[in-house]
Prior knowledge:
Blueprint: H1 4-10, E1 16-22, E2 27-33, E3 45-49, H2 53-64, E4 68-73, E5 87-88, H3 100-120, E6 129-130, E7 133-137, H4 140-144, H5 146-158, E8 167-170, H6 172-178, E9 187-191, E10 195-196, H7 199-212, E11 216-219, E12 222-227, E13 230-236, E14 239-242, E15 245-248, H8 254-261, E16 268-278, E17 289-292, E18 297-301, E19 305-309, H9 324-337, E20 345-356, E21 363-366, E22 373-377, H10 383-398
Helix pairs in contact: 2-7, 2-10, 3-10
Amino acid sequence: xxxxxxxxxxxxxxxxxxxxxxxxxxxxxxxxxxxxxxxxxxxxxxxxxxxxxxxxxxxxxxxxxxxxxxxxxxxxxxxxxxxxxxxxxxxxxxxxxxxxxxxxxxxxxxxxxxxxxxxxxxxxxxxxxxxxxxxxxxxxxxxxxxxxxxxxxxxxxxxxxxxxxxxxxxxxxxxxxxxxxxxxxxxxxxxxxxxxxxxxxxxxxxxxxxxxxxxxxxxxxxxxxxxxxxxxxxxxxxxxxxxxxxxxxxxxxxxxxxxxxxxxxxxxxxxxxxxxxxxxxxxxxxxxxxxxxxxxxxxxxxxxxxxxxxxxxxxxxxxxxxxxxxxxxxxxxxxxxxxxxxxxxxxxxxxxxxxxxxxxxxxxxxxxxxxxxxxxxxxxxxxxxxxxxxxxxxxxxxxxxxxxxxxxxxxxxxxxx
Length: 417
Ligand SMILES: Cc1cc2nc3c(=O)[nH]c(=O)nc-3n(C[C@H](O)[C@H](O)[C@H](O)COP(=O)(O)OP(=O)(O)OC[C@H]3O[C@@H](n4cnc5c(N)ncnc54)[C@H](O)[C@@H]3O)c2cc1C
């Protein structure tokens, strides 16, 4: 493992690295030019720190693009990806007219390509499925708001947002036909193309595919080594790995990497406790996701699994414990909306620390002050939906490609003191 010069020498390839200025984003990045003697693409050395869904996606894209990449992961207890529910439903989220909407739009449009690429690489087991969703009203007050919600969803669909599909208002009986444990609710909006993914399976599929394409995985705690305004590599387990570019995808722990570099990345852990239930003998694989005007939800996976979540605990700190209050909240809300689940087997409680940011927006793009360091984090409750795309996007930026989106609202500089 060496710098990009070493890589070129060791592979006998005349690599030309060009620094380009990415004018509109005001950053610089490395691009790689084809060798003069036509021996194919030169190999850059890039390091990704963090092995959740965002980091695995970045590493996979780099490996797929022929870049020599090393992913370093500490596998912290509380990794968000390992606990995430996996709802893919930008049409129902509280995205407003803000910058999250174009980001979510690009992210869900990216999913089919990602899944196709993974399938080409022999990875089809991600748990991704289009299962539909029910936005439920649990009382008359919420029912009165369904028509306005319906119009807002239709507007998003008309604007080209995916994962919405056909939209219809259903009465309680029709809703229960789709999700039998539901309470006697007054009504719901059905969206035919809401999706779900299994975060653990997707993360592992990305990791295996990246490894097969030559990515190196290192377990340990990484520290960025820098001098003269750029990272020179990463220190892990007492050794130093040289790098041309470093991508930070450290989830809720990203702030610590920022602190070591003197850059403010005010990501904090937001604990989520989520309940896994089993309904033995019941085929749940086609049940829709249950959403509503509160932050709780229920979704199902094949074959008899129902997942009910989740708490959003802003003051949890780095404490990935299951608490009596958290379990009570998540279970109580699930049983209020779907009392038919009361006889289910309590299989497991998963706990994850979401990477939350003070303004609810992710941090994406170049890191101020170090011109070959990039960051993708802060996706909070939407990282399984947004994260694969964000990882791919910063991987592209690290290779000198444009983001394809206005990343101004997501720049780390917005937190500069
Ligand atoms: C209960 C719950 C439900 C959720 N439901 C949904 C949902 O329905 N839909 C959705 O889109 N999203 C959901 N999310 C959010 C989503 O899971 C997260 O936003 C996403 O997984 C974050 O991924 P990440 O890769 O940024 O971070 P993580 O998955 O937390 O991974 C970060 C990794 O970086 C490693 N790391 C950190 N620092 C270092 C270092 N210095 N050296 C080496 N390694 C390091 C950590 O050990 C960790 O493995 C949910 C989250 C939770 C907790």
